[in-house]
Amino acid sequence: MERGAGAERQMKYVLVTGGVVSGLGKGVTASSIGVVLKSCGLRVTSIKIDPYLNTDAGTMSPFEHGEVFVLDDGGEVDLDLGNYERFLDSVLEKERKGDYLGKTVQVVPHITDAIKNWIESVASIPVDGKDGPADVCVIELGGTVGDIESMPFIEALRQLSFSVGKENFCLIHVSLVPVLGVVGEQKTKPTQHSVRELRALGLTPDLLACRSSQPIQENTKVKLSQFCHVPVANILNIHDVPNIWHIPLLLRLYFSMATPPDLKSWTEMAETYENLNSSVKIAMVGKYTGLTDSYLSVVKALLHSCVACSLRPSVEWIAASDLEDESARVTPEAYEMAWKALKGSSCILVPGGFGDRGVPGMILAAKYARENKIPYLGICLGMQISVIEISRSILGLERANSEEFDPQTPHPVVMFMPEGSRTHMGSTMRLGSRRTFIKNPDCITSKLYKGSAYVDERHRHRYEVNPDYVGKLESAGLEFVGSDESGTRMEVVELPSHPYYVGVQFHPEFKSRPGKPSALFLGLILAAAGQLQPHLNRL
Fold it and tell me: What is the dihedral of CA 419, 494, 89, 144, to 10 degrees?
């Protein structure tokens, strides 16, 4: 795939579809392909098309669809967009998430033309600060081939492949090759059926990306080639690997490029992680611990920071409700295990969330961290939890609470944002990249951000610290070290008497990258490992 000089280049499209079952890793595959192409000197953009018609992913349950990822422009999108940003290291705009395509299902008469035109339009938007469109657009079609809601999109993509020409369109189909435990044989029938269904819809795979627990055997490749009409050389084996950074390295082996891919940094990250011997225990006290994808970006940010500290992350998933007194009575075993995990961890993290379930347990976790000098990072709700806990424990305001959990509280230390809407939940939050000004240059947050007077981080919240209580909270020992430009909206809080007790209203996990970890996550891991002060002294 060489780029011509002078003449205007035709956009190349790489479509990634999935078959057999969901959750095969289409997003990781698509973003890894983008990494390989980008490492060859090509400019890469990406589009994610989700067949669900929810135009606001922010209102979808984390239990059903995992984490809601927030873009710089405030778009609330599918968690796969986070993989694209982390892998491609580019800032995606709202248009790139594909949920506008869901709207066209309802309002555009000539649906397939509308979808095709929209894809071409979005693909041409510059993504890397340079003029002109990218060289390659990687498109991931969400869902599984055969889903009825995917049909209009598949037809539109079939038309797109015909209109741009075979030389400018490549289809990669991700499928599963399971192994029967009894005989250990790799079964090709699910992939055969998936490809047959895709071909019946007018799309024939150029490459097959086969997901498996072990490397695909040669006879399995031959069988897949014979029945799926894909050359053996075009069958990619994406087997289970020790860490996600190996995926671009696996894919590199299958592509013949005019410019060899430069994946030195990815090789180093993958090898570094494999050679890590020491680990750090991190207590993740949350509401949605039953589905870890609900906190995908938090987990990735912890991984980035741990690798930077030469540590392997060991996340203790603790359901906040299991820490509560009620749990001791109803489920004593879960209660005992939760507290054992919390007390055995080197640091505590309380991530974001909505609703009152598990809040008493989070407050207990924040109190334990404060009283026992355990490094603590509270994100969004986690910051509000620390404010509520200190209001109750130190200020003596026993019924202090958030208006979200108790609208009648006499001490609303956390209040509903004045500009918010209580009835229309979709896109009513403070969203996207906002500037936070650091007020104290000597605080830990300022030092971790290398003395910057301000930081731009992404927000997603409806509630905030009540400015009427800031004075009282600071008299209790809290210090609000960061705020918005008005100085009244509190964004960062610290406890100066504590080794590392930081709460932030924004979500620093969304901008963490491999090799460029979030400053505040890095601070948490450094503090847990006893390396924070030496690190700050070097800055």
Answer: -60
Alpha-carbon distance values, 448 to 18, 86, 223 (Å): 41, 21, 55
Q: Which of 324, 389, 464, 509 is catalytic?
A: 509
Catalytic-role residue among 40, 137, 228, 380: 380
Phi first, then psi, for residue 189 (nearest 5°) are -60, -45
SS3 call for 207: strand
Residue 210 bears catalytic tag: no
Q: Mark whether 457 is an active-site residue.
A: no
Whether the model pTM is above 0.70: yes
Nearest CA to 40 among 167, 122, 134?
Answer: 134
What letters, b where the CB count within 10 A reaches 16 and e where it falls short, cover 127-164?
A: beeeeebbbbbbbbbbbbbbbeebebbbbbbbebbeeb
- Whether 380 is a known active-site residue: answer yes
Mean pLDDT by 10 residues, the chain (539 residues): 52 93 86 89 86 49 53 57 50 47 41 80 78 88 83 89 94 93 84 95 94 91 94 91 83 73 84 88 89 84 94 94 94 96 97 89 97 97 96 95 94 82 53 90 95 92 92 95 92 96 95 92 97 90
In a 3-state reduction of DSSP, which class is residue 11?
A: coil
